[in-house]
Design brief:
Layout: E1 2-6, H1 11-18, E2 25-29, H2 39-49, E3 53-56, H3 63-66, H4 70-91, E4 94-100, H5 123-139, E5 145-150, E6 153-154, H6 161-171, E7 174-178, E8 182-183, E9 186-187, H7 188-202, E10 214-216, E11 223-224, H8 225-238, E12 247-251, H9 253-256, H10 271-277, H11 284-293
Parallel strand pairs: 1-2, 1-3, 3-4, 4-5, 5-10, 6-9, 7-12
Antiparallel strand pairs: 8-11
C-alpha cells in the first residue's frame, strides 16, 4: 500500500516515518520535493504516484505570523487541500487531512465534539476551517476522506512547545508561561499511531462501518500551557535533561502582549475516535513522561 505524506519533514511527518508499519510503502514529500503553493507540482506528484492514501500534514501553522500573511496561510491551508482532494476524487485514493482545535472560538465549557459549530477567531483558524470546508464539499458522502483535528502537538522532532521549554530551562532561571489557554497537548508519536490505525482499519474490505468525515484526537486530560511547562520541568529534572528545576510563573494571555487571539478553551472530545479504533486513552502526562524518558 502506497502512502504519500505532505510536509514529511515536520514533527508529525517524522513521527509517522518512525512508526511506519512494515507493509507500507512511504512516499515522503517535504517542502523541498512538493511545494504546496504550486498547483502544478501537486497535480504532477499525485498523478505520478497515485497513492492509496495521502496524509496531508503540510500546512501554515505559524499562528502569529498568519495574521500578516493571509495569502500564504490560505494558499497552504485552503487551496492546497482543495486541489489534493479534487485529484484524489479522480484517482480514487483516500485522504487524512490534519486540522486543528483552532477552528473553534474557545468559548465552550466542555470538550468540542466533531459537529460543533466552527467559529475561528484568528487567521490561522479561519484558513484551516476553510480547508476543512473544501475537503468536505469535494468528498461529500464518498467516505474517501476524514478530517483529523488535533491540538498542541509536542514531541521529539522539530520546533514545538516541549522542545522550546527544554531549551529555555537549560538557558534561564525563570520562565513565564500562559496559564489561561486550556486544552490538551498531543504527542506526535501517539497521534502518528492513531493515524496508522485509521489507515489500517479503513483500508480493510467489508468493514462494519464507514470512515467518519471528521475525527478528533488529542491526548487525554485537560490542562493549561503553564501546567504542561511545570510537568516538563519536573520530568526533565528527574531524567537529568536539565541540571536544576526552573522557576515557572503563570501569566495571562493579556500579559503576554501577543497581537493575535487564541481560543481560551479548546479541548477536543476524542471519545468517538477511541471507540472506533478500540483505543485506550493516554493521559498527556504519560505521553510527556514517555517522550522525555526516551530522550536520555
Amino acid at each position: 500500500m502506497k502512502i504519500l505524506i505532505t510536509g514529511s519533514e515536520g514533527q508529525l511527518g517524522r513521527s509517522l516515518n518512525k512508526l511506519k508499519p512494515l507493509d507500507i510503502s512511504l512516499i515522503n514529500c517535504p517542502k523541498s520535493k512538493l511545494d504546496l503553493t504550486n498547483k502544478l507540482e501537486i497535480k504532477n506528484t499525485i498523478y505520478s504516484y497515485r497513492p492509496d492514501w495521502i496524509i496531508n500534514c503540510g500546512a501554515y501553522t505559524k499562528v502569529l505570523d498568519a495574521e500578516n500573511n493571509h495569502k500564504l496561510a490560505y494558499s497552504l491551508n485552503q487551496t492546497a487541500p482543495k486541489l489534493i482532494s479534487e485529484i484524489l476524487s479522480e484517482t480514487g485514493g483516500k485522504l487524512i487531512h490534519l486540522s486543528t482545535d483552532y477552528v473553534f472560538d474557545g468559548k465552550s465549557n466542555k470538550p468540542y465534539k466533531v459537529n460543533d459549530i466552527k467559529k475561528p477567531i484568528n487567521i490561522y483558524g479561519a484558513s484551516k476551517a476553510a480547508g476543512e470546508r473544501e475537503v468536505e464539499n469535494i468528498f461529500k458522502d464518498t467516505c474517501q476522506a476524514t478530517i483529523l483535528r488535533t491540538s498542541g502537538i509536542i514531541g521529539p522532532f522539530g520546533k514545538n512547545f516541549s522542545e522550546t521549554m527544554l531549551q529555555l530551562f537549560a538557558d534561564r532561571e525563570k520562565v513565564n508561561v500562559i496559564c489561561d489557554q486550556i486544552s490538551s497537548p498531543t504527542s506526535s508519536l501517539r497521534l502518528s499511531f492513531v493515524i496508522w490505525e485509521i489507515i489500517k482499519k479503513f483500508s480493510k474490505r467489508n468493514i462494519s462501518h464507514t470512515m467518519p468525515k471528521i475525527m478528533h484526537y488529542s491526548d487525554d486530560g485537560i490542562c493549561s500551557w503553564y501546567d504542561v511547562a511545570c510537568k516538563i520541568n519536573e520530568l526533565a529534572f528527574e531524567n537529568q535533561l536539565i541540571k536544576k528545576k526552573v522557576k515557572i510563573s503563570p501569566i495571562s494571555s493579556n500579559q503576554f502582549h501577543e497581537n493575535v487571539k487564541r481560543p481560551k478553551f479548546s479541548k477536543l472530545d476524542s471519545s468517538e475516535t477511541h471507540k472506533i479504533l478500540n483505543l485506550k486513552p493516554i493521559h498527556w502526562e504519560e505521553s510527556i513522561k514517555s517522550y522525555l524518558k526516551n530522550k536520555k
